[in-house]
Design goal:
Length: 244
């Protein structure tokens, strides 16, 4: 932005202190070969012999004798020419766009809740997960949000981890969508009848298509002690959301 003065500076000028300082600063930015002072002026707000001489020499260099009256007036040619030697600073370059996240096909998921069975009063906080992109050493925290939701657990994320491969290469931030946590108990056929219990976290990408089924070690209910029981399935469905 060009500098301005409120009154004349120089020979027979009003020579107000702030205006004089402005002209002294502008003159000091002019190379001596283009009419600037051979020695830098002191920025003292006093329009003395050296400042008046510098104004006259600058005008003589650029406008000749007819334009060298030794005074800088507001809005006139001398001030405009001085401002040409004080250009606006270049704006900072725009920030570089962040590098896109790399694709991967090798991930590990680690739950924050590591018990064998979820608590009776479970909330979304209990379904907080750390997903790690192994080849690229990147990680993100997700939560299966349902009902009112809850604050994500901060960890520690350790213990019951599962390694999985998505249907197609994706980024560590690309698992948002619909999620369903499912626990099923089934009867084992054969001589040694009994039941088995299995839990999975199922993730369905927002663009549709086949989901990912990841084995989990925490169940939504306890395994039955009745060897003839079975056929029970429970699930929790919500949005699988990136939280950190």
């Amino acid at each position: 932005m060009p500098k301005i003065i409120t009154a004349s500076v120089g020979l027979n000028g009003k020579n107000k202190d702030p205006d004089t300082r402005t002209i002294q600063e502008l003159l000091n930015k002019v190379p001596s070969g283009q009419g600037g002072p051979k020695a830098l002026l002191e920025i003292d707000g006093i329009c003395g012999r050296l400042t008046r001489g510098a104004i006259h020499n600058f005008q003589l260099h650029h406008f000749g004798w007819s334009g060298a009256d030794g005074r800088v007036d507001p809005g006139m040619q001398t001030l405009a020419k001085l401002n040409e030697f004080d250009p606006d600073p270049l704006p900072p370059p725009p920030p570089l766009p962040p590098n896109p996240e790399p694709l991967s096909s090798d991930f590990v998921i680690v739950p924050a809740y590591r018990g064998e069975v979820f608590p009776d009063q479970m909330s979304s906080s209990d379904f907080t997960y750390l997903i790690i992109d192994l080849p690229n050493n990147r990680e993100r925290v997700y939560q299966l949000q349902f009902g009112v939701g809850g604050l994500p657990k901060t960890g520690p994320f350790e213990g019951f981890f599962s390694r999985f491969v998505p249907r197609k290469p994706t980024t560590v931030s690309g698992f948002q969508g619909i999620g369903a946590y499912m626990t099923s108990e089934t009867i084992n056929p054969g001589l040694h009848s009994g039941t088995s219990i299995r839990s999975t976290l199922n993730l369905f990408p927002p663009e549709g298509g086949s989901g990912i089924s990841i084995p989990m070690k925490t169940h939504l209910f306890k395994k039955s002690t009745n060897p003839d029981a079975g056929g029970m399935t429970t699930s929790v469905t919500g949005n699988f959301v990136l939280v950190r």
